[in-house]
């Protein structure tokens, strides 16, 4: 698409270079202008891929991972997955710690180069999930689990370790849904915490059910990869043939020079941010990832977490007292939903009395 030379565009400070705005450039309001300016750096195919990713929020490509490596990534985890009640292998998180092949796929140069191109920032692989079977996971966007500050410097790369078709539980996604606003627990006035995740999933299902976005499933050849952007709605389709495996690996990546946290567990305006710090390791080096706040390295000066027995004991005590976080939303009348939510949040976070006023204003909005 030709971009008309406009004197106002020439003087636009946000076109000075690619990171004058802290936003992935394919999501920038100035993406067309930036791409036009940078086009010499890319091949025609890359320009097509950049445009496709900006428009649809995903990209399928062949990273040319050798066949032996795909086989080893399965073999090296054989017998090491935990089993569900039916004796089937469950997904394994961070198999890269025990499988050199899983690690090699997560750090595969063609993948890292593609991410560098799409984000114009250094990608950092930080988590792998290895699947033997389709997940049948409900539709979600990764931004509820993994967010960065500034936003959206995160993506998933899913590699087919065998062919995937309509019957072994392919991925599904909703092209263009990445352009929706960022939703967190404040959007649907939900409680934070994994025990309340179902309400997030119900909310996303309600959005997809109005038919604004088209659901697509993907057939993939062994070795092909799909990159999805942080805010793209995606999930796992139903497994039509339960006898079939769906061997696959997803690696989650952050990008350099951000802070990293989990919105599902966070309530920033109650000063609660669930930072990902301990355990957030760069798969390439096995070392913790340096985080940055507006360009300055962050030195997390948090007190060390109490040891596991102490945390377990506190958890037991909370459960014995019937922690408010366990309150079932279904018990709350819709009319009273906002007020009740605020009340539960207050109890859950044990806030001092004066802040109650704040909850009243929140309810009256
Ligand atoms: O592999 C799948 O079926 C879904 C994976 C997924 O949703 C994720 O890793 O976020």
Description:
The structure is a single chain. Mean pLDDT is 86; it is low at 324-342 and 349-365. Strand 12 (292-293) and strand 13 (296-297) form a beta hairpin. Helix 4 (67-75) packs across helix 5 and helix 9 (337-349) runs antiparallel to helix 10. This protein has 365 residues and is α+β, with helices and mostly antiparallel strands. It has ten helices and 13 strands. The chain is globular, with a radius of gyration of 22 Å. The longest helix is centred in the N-terminal third of the chain and has 13 residues, at 44-56. 2-oxoglutaric acid binds next to strand 3 and strand 9.
Short description:
This protein has 365 residues and is an alpha+beta fold. It is 27% helix and 15% strand. Helix 4 packs across helix 5 (100-106) and helix 9 (337-349) runs antiparallel to helix 10.
Shape descriptor reads globular
Element pattern in H and E: HHHEHEHHEEEEHEEEEEEEHHH
Number of helical segments with 4 or more residues: 10
The percentage of residues in β strands lies in 5-15%
**Distance between the first and last residues' Cα:** 44 Å
The whole-number mean of residue pLDDT values reads: 86
**Could you say which structural class the secondary elements and strand pairing correspond to?**
alpha+beta
Give the total of beta strands. Answer: 13
Low-confidence stretches: 324-342, 349-365
Quaternary assembly: single chain
Approximately how much helix is present in the residues?
25-40%
Provide the gyration radius in Å: 22 Å
Largest sheet: 6 strands, antiparallel
Q: Which compounds are bound in this model?
A: 2-oxoglutaric acid
**Order of strands across the widest beta sheet?**
1-8-5-10-3-2
